[in-house]
Design a protein that fits this description.
This protein has 145 residues and is α+β, with helices and mostly antiparallel strands. It contains 5 helices and 4 strands, in the order ααβαββααβ. It folds into 2 domains: 5-40, no CATH class; 47-139, Alpha-Beta Plaits, CATH 3.30.70. Strand 2 (87-92) and strand 3 (100-106) form a beta hairpin.
């Protein structure tokens, strides 16, 4: 029994150290359990945005007059979203042969807000454009705060 005593003291000491000292690599878990918020808690210099790829939509049978009217309202919507701070970047692709029309970067709290803003766009609502929404993260800078 006396031979086991040093081993028991060493074991007790190791358990005590493990209980007192936190692990060096811990995973930050946000109270909501949302993985993006947990990742942001781990790296506060990175922020999530929403990248939108506008594509040719299913409704290409509109007249030129209808299309021009929809695009005018679409341009006003872009100006409104930019003025409100929700749209940080917007612009068309030079080569639209693959059906890609434009790209946006939105600053929204989640994908639901981004989707709500996109679905209020007349070009999307009319089917002239469709979209693909992607979560996108970047470091904070002058443009992306």
């Amino acid at each position: 029994m006396l031979k086991l005593l040093p081993a028991l003291f060493l074991f007790a000491f190791m358990v005590l150290i493990m209980a007192i000292v936190p692990p060096r690599t811990s995973v930050a878990i946000h109270a909501s359990g949302h993985p993006n918020k947990a990742a942001a808690a781990q790296n506060p210099g990175v922020k999530q945005y929403w990248m939108v790829l506008l594509k040719e939509g299913p409704n290409q049978s509109l007249s030129q007059e209808q299309t021009e009217g929809i695009l005018a309202i679409h341009a006003q919507n872009i100006q409104h979203l930019t003025a409100s701070g929700k749209m940080l970047v917007a612009g068309p692709f030079n080569d639209q042969s693959a059906g890609l029309k434009s790209v946006y970067i939105l600053d929204c709290k989640d994908s639901l807000e981004a989707t709500r803003l996109l679905q209020s766009d007349t070009a999307i609502a009319s089917g002239l454009f469709s979209y693909e929404l992607k979560s996108w993260k970047t470091t904070k800078s002058d443009l992306f705060k």
